[in-house]
Amino acid sequence: MTTNPTPLVPPTAAPAAGRPEDAERPPLRILLTILELAALGVIGSAVLGILSATLGVGLGMLFVFGAGVFVLLGLVYALYGVAWFEVRRVGDLYAQDLPDLQWRPRTRPGFWGWVRNVARQSIDGRMWKVILNLVLASIAGTIVLRLAWGAVWSGFTAFAPLTGGTGGVDGPWGFSIATEWAPLVGILGVLASLAGIVGLALLHRTLSRSLVIPDRAAQLSEQVRTTSAQREGAVRAADLERTRIERDLHDGVQPRLVSVGMTLGLAQQKIDTDPVAAKALIDEAHTSTKAAITELRQLARGIHTSVLDDRGLDAALSALAGRSHIPVQLDVRIEPGVTGAGSGCRDAEAAVYFAIAESLTNAAKHSRASECRIVVRSRDGGLWARVEDNGMGGAQVQPGGGLDGITNRILAAGGTFRLDSPAGGPTSLEVTVPCAS
């Protein structure tokens, strides 16, 4: 039995907002735009040429044992990388906090699941809009370089009479100019070239805002959709948690306490006629009471872990690994300041902790695993965790089950969840949870 990786709605970045650099004077912003366009005129054109050549090679090799397929798959990764860089470039240039380009999550395991994932990424609309912006910027950059050369040549033309020549002067665009007209034509050429360069810079800004910077209405709509999904996840997680607590109380602690009450009742009846038997019953009730207290502590630990608040995620996971029935290799590396009091990561820490705890519980109950590995890292201002066991695999997200609880808890925290558990194992679970700002 094979389960598909289960992606959740990824956390949506806040609407693009201007940074303090927006206060810079417009001339400086225009100058930076012109410089970047000039660079793209050289580098961008070369990159686009390489991508186009790769596309041609991939299409040409499709009928050579299907080798072109792998070239085209690699091209998708290259396009994604170029688009990701372009988003960063535009965001830094115009001081906008743009959400990074996101690779689409896998929905199926195995080789064909990977191929399908890359194919889905190849039709990502946002990626192609960003690539289009790069193409237009590279074309504009090429024109900027030509205009810059025209401005320089026009400047030389304006001073041509000072050389003492009496013949015509070669203009910047391949035509001859009379010496007496050279200053006027040269000055006009400089002004026209500079105006064209500034115009292209302004055009680039307009196109980038249209193609790369998300529309405000679309951002708000996406925020509403994500917030609704998070709210539904929070409600679902709370409902599952309440059901789990009721089940644990009903099936565990409640029968044990009823048994303690009945045992004490029998002891009370025998205390006068058979003190020895009464003492044995009291001892039995005492043992059952301690067991009930232990179960209540475990139940409370499943609701709230005090060590998580007192000593942080690393210590809480160490305690969790120490109680595990399966040997656990724990590797936690969190940057200072990411977690702890006042870091805004308390909810993220709790979500990651309970996801790992439920994963270990499932592994102990169902996987027949002999070893489990837990890796936790700080990533992009949030937390990323991976739990992997060498069990029999076949784990699935069942409504009302433990994995369903993890799914909704992570979703409520604005994170992502991925489960990969093919038949025969191994089972791996990855969660990523952003920290509150």
Q: Summed up, what is this model?
A:
It is built from 11 helices and 7 strands.
- CATH topology label of the largest domain: Heat Shock Protein 90
Name of the CATH first level of the largest domain: Alpha Beta
Question: Strand share of the residues?
Answer: 5-15%
Shape estimate? elongated
Q: If strands are numbered along the chain, what order do they take across the biggest sheet? A: 3-4-5-7-6
User: What is the chain-wise order of helices and strands?
Assistant: HHHHEEHHHHHEHEEHEE
What is the makeup of the main sheet? Answer: 5 strands, mixed
Keywords for this entry:
437 residues; two-stranded antiparallel ribbon; alpha+beta; five-stranded mixed β-sheet; 2 domains; 7 strands; Heat Shock Protein 90; single chain
Blueprint of the fold:
Blueprint (H helix, E strand, L loop, with lengths): L25 H35 L6 H27 L16 H13 L2 H34 L10 E2 L5 E2 L4 H30 L4 H55 L4 H29 L2 H6 L1 H11 L4 E6 L12 H22 L4 E8 L2 E8 L12 H11 L3 E5 L6 E8 L3
Parallel strand pairs: 3-4
Antiparallel strand pairs: 1-2, 4-5, 5-7, 6-7
Task: Characterize the structure shown.
62% of the residues lie in helices and 9% in strands. It is an alpha+beta fold. The chain folds into 2 domains: 197 residues, no CATH class; 205 residues, 2-Layer Sandwich (Heat Shock Protein 90). The strands form 2 sheets. The chain has a 5-stranded mixed sheet with strand order 3-4-5-7-6, with helices on one face. A two-stranded antiparallel sheet has the order 1-2. The two termini are 41 Å apart. The N terminus is likely disordered.
